[in-house]
Amino acid sequence: MKKVLVITYYWPPAGGPGVQRWLKFVKYLRDFNVEPIVYIPKNPNYPLVDESFLKDIPEGITIYSHEILEPYRWAKLFSRKKTKRISAGIINTKDQSFIEKILLWVRGNLFVPDARKFWVGPSVKFLRNIIDKEQISSIITTGPPHSVHLIGLRLKQIMPINWIADFRDPWTTIGYHKKLKLSSFAAQKHKRLESKVLNSADKIIVTSATTKKEFTTLTEQPITVITNGFDRGVGQKKILDVKFTISHIGSMLSGRNPTNLWKVLSELLNQDKAFKKALHLRFIGVVSDEVLSSLSHYGLQDNLELVGYVSHHEALAFQDKSQILLLAEIDSFETQGIIPGKLFEYMAAKRPILAIGPKGWEVGAIINETNAGCIFEYTDEIELKNVLLSWFEQYKKGELTISSSGIETYSRRELTRKLSELI
Predict the structure, then answer these.
(1) So which domain of life are we looking at (predicted)?
(2) Of 160, 161, 209, 366, whose CB count within 10 A is highest?
(3) What is the mean pLDDT of residues 92-96?
(4) 419: Cβ–Cβ under 8 A, 6 or more apart, which residues?
(5) What is the pTM for the complete model shown?
(6) Would you tell me which CATH number, out of the four given (3.40.50.2000, 2.130.10.10, 3.40.50.20, 3.10.450.50), belongs to the domain 2-226?
(7) Which fold has domain 244-408?
């Protein structure tokens, strides 16, 4: 059985989508004759914690860890809430306080590529001995944080190893990169580091075809697309909500504010008393003040339920019983290649997906290919209204279902099969 060292910052009990990708790969790699060995920080500062992920760690797996210096711990002395949001990549661009501006400038210009850069040097020194001890010939780094890739870069420079760099998100073209108040020096340093990683890794993995297209202009190294996926039964029979529930799972931030949807729902409320009585908007996770203001502006506050952050297990239960699952992405060119991990779990829930995002959003191709729902741009209103009316009529008859197909290729186990072939 071939050994591979997986170097990752996010690992249980970390919560959120970042931890799931490599937790699930590690869970299934043994099925394909690959023995994963995992390296993680000993004392990380995770913005979200979800103990339920601990049960997915394979029994007997070898896990090494080393201490990490976390500047975000110091930043909490100034503002715990703002530091937590910046750590999670949530950056408010409106009405920033003086402290928030300072924190962003420091994050963007003193911590390149990110605040976990201090883990690189100690990790390289520590892992040299581990690689020799375990007789490891292949390593995998996954980012963000992209400083993890610098561990792979340095190890590649001093040892004869095969290095695979996995990009869960792009580096310099990610949406929040422009908000970091970068100096020209810091911006160029990001570019240089990105180029070094892309041209030094033996193989590169990305989560979308858009990112692959972008990276092919920066490197000639082989690039493989392996999306995120789901790890659960498909379309399990569940008791659905009595109400006409439209649920959104995850952070509904200011940039993901589909005002065209709120407007259409408001019109339907005013036109149809039955629709007004049945509609139930449910948000599981963080909802920005701007989104809440928009919902109030369109008179939807009485149809609203704010659940807050829940465990992954609880989130799946909410998905299964919802009538419709809402997926929204920021309306910008930079987000065309962002494929949220929850898309695939939505697909596994076998409930109609209502997706609203930028023109050319890669999610649209997946939804259309699998017939898992409908996708709209932020300017669409008439067709959006027609689809909602159609779904509402089906709901009233107890016939609101989805006839999706081909989603099994997005199961975590099948995706791990593809990864094992690459290793």
Answers:
(1) Bacteria
(2) 366
(3) 54
(4) 25, 29, 205, 226
(5) 0.88
(6) 3.40.50.2000
(7) Rossmann fold (3.40.50)
